[in-house]
Input
Amino acid sequence: QVQLVESGGGLVQAGGSLRLSCAAPGRTFNDYNMAWFRQAPGKEREFVAGIIRRISGSTDYADSVKGRFTISRDNAWNTVYLQMNSLKPEDTAVYFCAADGSSFGVSTGVPAYKYWGQGTQVTVSS
Output
């Protein structure tokens, strides 16, 4: 069992920035592809960004966040980050960290991810 703990959500004005963190206390991220998903009220959970387990650190992003969000990982600290810049009201959602130990590359589908954090709320005001 991998427990994921997110932090860093909050309320920010449009155009502002936030950095989300996801930690796995006592576990290593080296064996997992990591990703961030988000879910707005009344909508399905959607892929935001992902990063593979291998040292190349290849990443993938949803079109809606490309150029604004950056995912990164620090395996020494067992932490993955999501830097969110130029935030928009439509970015408002609960953001979830997820771990996938099976896929070769970054998967954008919810079913690929076995472990999930509890979620952190991000609210962007206009």
